[in-house]
From TrEMBL:
Pfam families: Creatinase_N (PF01321), Peptidase_M24 (PF00557)
Ranges for domain Peptidase M24: 135-340
Entry-linked SUPFAM superfamilies: Creatinase/aminopeptidase (SSF55920), Creatinase/prolidase N-terminal domain (SSF53092)
Ranges for domain Creatinase N-terminal: 7-98
Protein's UniProt name: Aminopeptidase P family protein
Species this protein is from: Corynebacterium nuruki
Keywords assigned: Aminopeptidase, Hydrolase, Metal-binding, Protease
GO molecular function annotation: aminopeptidase activity; metal ion binding; metalloexopeptidase activity
Organism superkingdom: Bacteria
Length: 356
């Protein structure tokens, strides 16, 4: 079972070190991390000594008692009320609280403009515990397996519309047990593939490259992967771009290990593409963490501080891409768990170009 009490105690130490008596937690993913509660309306007051109070409304009375866990070292009190912040302001009393930066300016002003404490929970979330890593492996395995079956069944073929193919994939993911989609599926054919976040259109899939970026939620944790396949035999440009992106991807994956610099990982991938003359068409960062959020820290990007390095237990995607406006695009992506001596992918299917 997940030790939520220890998680709260660890974050409470950060709150105390920052000089605050309490932290008002409003981000729902952070609340789930600290308590196990997965409802859509809640707030938590975390005391610097590790004690905590969660407030949610009557719709979740049964759920919050079932999902939350507490222990003598870090007790969790439950209040059922619609007045989340009012109840927690009362509990905090004269000690007051700091808030997370995600709280809106309007809400913060109604609370008296308290101090902002950024990253207290997110920094704890960076290194995943064993239960989290298992959840990430299961989410990745489910999505990867379903996608392999989807391709084998002819899910991508000329004549289908992008939206028809995406609907088929999404149905298969849900039927296999996914709790939901971790983001809107991208399935882009032809010129649409030149848009990194093209989404899904009603356009008909045409011969050539098709990029599919997809993921699921499973037990609260996300998966994220991208495959680019080719409908019919690739022409010279398609083959050139795919081989280039695959070389960049492979170099990036080889660089993932404890102590590796995040800026350096991005640079390894980016330099290969730039040296081939396509640097201006790699328009996003190389990677990000995956966990309770599908996009979270750490980040491998050209703007990342060069001192930031990977630690065992963190996650990172490697996802270089090249996008030629009016022509086509390629992206390849896996999610990796940083191990003691390297990295483990949660998306084991082939990254070689598949012709369908």
């Amino acid at each position: 079972m997940t030790d939520y009490a220890s998680r709260r105690a660890a974050v409470a130490r950060t709150v105390a070190e920052a000089g605050h008596k309490n932290l008002l937690v409003s981000d729902l993913k952070n609340i789930r991390y600290l308590t196990g509660f997965s409802g859509s309306n809640a707030a938590v007051l975390l005391n610097a000594d590790g004690a905590a109070t969660i407030v949610t409304d009557g719709r979740y009375d049964t759920q919050v008692h079932q999902e939350t866990a507490s222990g003598p070292a870090s007790p969790l009190d439950i209040i059922i009320s619609r007045d989340l912040f009012g109840e927690l302001t009362r509990v905090a009393g004269d000690a007051g609280y700091a808030i997370e930066p995600g709280l809106s300016v309007g809400e913060a002003r109604t609370l008296g403009d308290p101090a902002i404490l950024a990253g207290a929970v997110e920094s704890a979330r960076l290194v995943k515990d064993a239960a989290e890593l298992d959840a990430l492996r299961e989410a990745g395995r489910l999505a990867d397996t379903v996608f392999t079956e989807f391709l084998a069944a002819g899910g991508i073929r000329a004549g289908l519309t992008e939206i028809e193919a995406a609907a088929d994939l999404e149905h298969r993911l849900r039927a296999a047990g996914a709790d939901g989609l971790s983001f809107d599926t991208i399935l882009a054919s032809g010129e649409n593939a030149a848009k990194p976040h093209a989404g899904v259109s009603r356009d008909v899939i045409v011969p050539g490259l098709v990029t599919i970026d997809f993921g699921v939620w499973l037990d609260g944790y996300a998966s994220d992967q991208t495959r680019t396949v080719c409908v019919g035999e690739p022409d010279a440009l398609s083959r050139e771009l795919y081989d280039l992106v695959h070389r960049s991807f492979s170099a990036g994956t080889d660089a993932v290990r404890p102590g590796a610099g995040l800026f350096a990982i991005d640079k390894v991938c980016r330099d290969i593409i730039a040296d081939a003359g396509y640097g201006e068409y790699f328009v996003h960062s190389t990677g990000h963490g995956v966990g309770l959020d599908v996009h979270e820290g750490p980040n491998a990007a050209s703007r990342t501080d060069e001192s930031e390095t990977l630690v065992a237990g963190e996650t990172l995607t490697i996802e270089p891409g090249v996008y030629l406006p009016g022509k086509t695009g390629v992206r390849i992506e896996n999610t990796y768990i940083v191990t003691d001596d390297g990295a483990e992918t949660v998306n084991p299917s082939t990254t070689e170009l598949q012709v369908v």
